[in-house]
Specification:
Structural class: alpha/beta
Largest sheet: 5 strands, parallel
Number of domains: 2
Number of strands: 9
Radius of gyration: 25 Å
Distance between the termini: 36 Å
Strand content: 5-15%
Shape: elongated
Order of helices and strands: HHEHEEEEHEEEHEHHHHHHHHHHHH
Length: 369
Amino acid sequence: MTTASTMYALSLDQIAAAMLAGGNKRTTLVQGDMGTGKSSLLKMLAEKLPNHKPCYFDCTTKDLGDITIPDLVSGTPDDEKSKGYVTYLTNEELGVHNNVPIILMVDEYGKALPPVKNALLRLMLERKMGSYTLHPDSIVFATTNLGAEGVGDMMMPHQRNRITVVTSRKPTADEWIEWGINNDVDHTLLGWAKDTPQLFQSFTDISAPDDNPYIFHPQAPERDAFVTPRSLEAASDWMKVRHDFDDHTLTSLLIGTIGARGAMDLGAFVKLADTMPTRAEIQDSPHDARVPDSAAGVCMVVFRTLSSMTKEYLNPWMDYLARLPLEAQGMFANGVRADKYKDRGMVMGNKKFTEWAMKNNYLFSAEKK
């Protein structure tokens, strides 16, 4: 099902960059697979534009009367012919009353009732709503699911022609892992994601549902729970408290979060994670702590370290790192050097890491060519 829009699908970072450049002139509607973080664009833009007020408008909860309501303006007392007139107040969620630059996300536009879609068209095209006009620096964008997902996202041609529609792609496994390291995602889940990159495929790339049993597919309606970046984050929350209940309960919770196939396969990784050395073992005895036998186990140790680094742990970790396979050492270094890594400055300023980087500089030679 490859089309021009899927061939030129964009990452969320690319979409955010485009909105920062031209979002004050043109409204972009972002369509993409469910659960892939489209709504996080509001936070991404707000971090880049701290003087803008972020506003969230959920179309699925609105009817026409929820957008504007009438207000009466009295006539002039000294003019008997002036009877007054009706004006309209807008919904607070739209933010058009603020008289400051805003970032307005019109969420789930494709699922809105037809009158709601029409009522928002002028705002998205002309930046006006009733008697209100947005600040010229305001950014307006909308989100919706792919129509092929069959969850009710539809637009008429005249609506679509007023906006720019782009397709957001799913993150790759490595992109999601980088995000997960910086957002406290369970390290076992990160290891499973590294070992199972098909978790991040789109159904648009799959010819038959059975070719990927983990993800949503409109031709597999019986698959009522499945893997998305959103459901993986939910599974992480259960994984982090799994020691408070038995394995049977954990499996049931995971089945209801990421589907049966995902839950069973992740369960195997849980057993593997329990054989890993603890942080305390590495910190107390970096030269004697266990080194996992499997590549997946080594990955989980590295991901756990990246996501929970402290100054006290850094020196013993560097001693332990030298005992890991060279590929794992490079994985750790690449994780540290990522622009978005939360502890980048702390690790790169460490003497042992600097010595290791100088000694192993050849690991990055291909990157510099």
